[in-house]
Amino acid sequence: MSSGSMPDPFxxxxxxxxxxxxxxxxTPATMAGDLRGRRVLVGLPGHGWRGDLRADAKVVQGSRTYxxxxxxxxxxxxxxxxxxxxxxxxxxxxxxxEELGFSGTTTPGAKVNQxxxxxxPPRRPPVSAIDADTLTGRRVTxxxxxxxxxxxxxxxxxxxxxxxxxxxxxxxxxxxxxxxxWSGKLPRTLEVPAHLVWxx
Length: 200
Hints:
By secondary structure, the chain is mainly beta.
């Protein structure tokens, strides 16, 4: 690599095609099984959606079924410190579970039509870190050498050139990322080549 030139993030990848991780596919909670600890979205068709939430087991009150829902940061804190946290009871028909769809390949730079139906939460195809507008704080997936996916990660930096001259992203376990917020303790991070990191 010549002085001052940027490394090629696609070097070593045939035709620039990256194996993408499985996309997030929202599924009605009425069709899902156990919800404890699952990532969920809440909202109302035609109105809007809210994410970064976790669910607990469904509860029945009278003839209605509800899902206890809490901000993801509170869920992690409750699990890590074994404390009770407040969870809103949301009618089950207003809760959607984040399921994983089928993986495919994504061509770098390809754009996805942004128009969606308001009848359900939008599907989220993964976006390569190379093509993402921003990374810091976003949920990401790392593709491992054997093709497996490592999830429950957060990016703690934007793309940068590592000491080895590789375009990379620093990531942290999501629990450590949230703990950083409530305790101030810096998370352990891992530097990952950017072509192996995808925004969920």
